[in-house]
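To illustrate this point, we now present one chain and its tokenised fold:
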Amino acid sequence: MSLQLREMWVRTESAMNPSREYLHEEALRNIQTITGKSAIKAVMKPGPFDEDAFRATLERRFIEQNDAHKGVSCNTALDSLTSGDLKSLWGMESTGGMPGVAFADDKWFLWTDTCPATSEERRNLCYNEFGEEESDRIYPGSFGNAEALAKFWGVTLLRPTVRHAMQDKFPFEVDGSLVWLNSPNANRDGRAFRSYSGGVDTSNYSIRNHRDDWGFRTEKLVENKFPPKPTLFSSFIEGLSGRQW
């Protein structure tokens, strides 16, 4: 192995296995401002960020997962990422999410967690701030919540419709664990969707207490900065068919 290749390998491995550290006081105050919650103690700080090494990791994963997005240009997908997008994806990566392109069209790339199972860093969380407050009444002390973590990274919780569409592309919850999914009505009715190895449970589950070992999955929609020039035919086709994800 050449010295250059060895250095790249070391940098990539370092990016894939960052140190896990709890947020320092300043960052903790920042997330409190974002969420309005006074006690989020389980929020993890992403490890050391090396942009070149991380881009190499994303490129390698894109190629490995080529069957999931045939016909999509790897260079276009990566070059469309802004500095902010990369940091959001790094938030997903540093806690074991393994972000990859799940879907793409002429205008957008949808990056999602593609990990077979939820990492330990993302487990034992409430769904949102409301669920966390309700849980605190029974179990004093904050467990943290999935919605706040996703918001802190600049991503959103994975939608059930996307989870359904990804079923044949990636394995999910191979260890039998459960994860929270994006549930717009959770604040109103106190219930949320969950994902498991067989699909999405649409019966919903209460968010009013802490869920042992439950994790969460995320997604990030990124604009295609280099879309193909539209033609009369492509504009006509786009008008007929809406994006399913």
Notes: The beta strands are 21-22, 44-45, 99-104, 108-113, 156-157, 179-180, 191-196, 199-206, 215-216, 218-223. Confidence is low (pLDDT under 50) at residues 1-44.
